[in-house]
Amino acid sequence: QQQVKQSPQSLIVQKGGIPIINCAYENTAFDYFPWYQQFPGKGPALLIAIRPDVSEKKEGRFTISFNKSAKQFSLHIMDSQPGDSATYFCAAAVFSGTYKYIFGTGTRLKVLA
Amino acid sequence: DVKVTQSSRYLVKRTGEKVFLECVQDMDHENMFWYRQDPGLGLRLIYFSYDVKMKEKGDIPEGYSVSREKKERFSLILESASTNQTSMYLCASGVWGGTDTIYFGEGSWLTVV
Predict the structure, then answer these.
(1) B78-95 b/e with 16+ CB inside 10 Å = b?
(2) Interface list for A 46-65 with B (CB within 8 A)
(3) Which of A19, A36, B67, B95 has a CB 3.0–4.6 Å from the CB of B75, allowing a cystine?
C-alpha cells in the first residue's frame, strides 16, 4: 500500500514531442505529490508538485494531471527539448509525525534533437 | 537557494571498512534524510531525523547507522561496508508547513570492493 508505481521505465521522443510519465498509488492518505528531475551525476531537484485538491497544475512547459478517484497522476512535458533529457521521479508523501516520501522507480527520458 | 552539501562525491572503500558520509544543509531545516539510489529501485529511505539527536529508521536501515549532533549536519555510517552497499547515497533536508518539499544534495557514489 506504500508503493508508488511509475511507468514507463524509459522513454524516447523527438524534439517538440509531449512525453507523458505516469504514476499510481494505493494509499489515500498521501497528500503531496512532487516530481523530481535528475541529471546524470546530480541529485534530484524538485520540478513541480501538486496537492490532491486540484486536478492540474502547470509550471512553464511542465504539467501535472491528477486523478484522485483513479489514484493516478502524470507528468506532461510540452514542446520537449534535448535539455529535458534526464531521469524523472514521481513521489507521494504522507504526514505521520513527519513527511514520509515514497518514490517511484524513475523514468529515463531522452529527447532527440 | 537551499544548499545541501555532501562532502564526499566519490569514494572507494574495502569490504569491512567503516565508512562515514557527511551531509550539511544551510537552511536551518529540522528534517534530514538519507536515501540510497539504485537502478530500477528508485530512491529508498535509509534513515531520517526530525531533530538534533533524534533519528528514525526508514525502509532499509540494516547495515547503517546515523548521527545528528548539530541541526545542520547529518552523517550516515556504514559500520562494516559490504559489496552490496555499493550505491549512490543521497542526503536531503526539508521543513514542513510550507511547501513540504525536500531538497537533495548532489550525491555520494560509494564503491565497496
Answers:
(1) beebeeebebbbbbbbbb
(2) 46, 49
(3) B67
Which has more confidence, B105 or B40? B105
Question: What are the cell numbers at A17?
Answer: 514531442
> Does residue A78 sit at the B interface (CB-CB below 8 Å)?
no
pLDDT, mean over chain A: 94
In Å, how far is A17's CA from the nearest CA of chain B? Answer: 25
Q: Does the distance separating the beta carbons of B40 and A9 come in below 8 Å?
A: yes
Tell me whether B97 touches chain A (CB under 8 Å).
no
A87 near A6, Cβ under 8 Å?
no
What pLDDT shows up at residue B106? 95
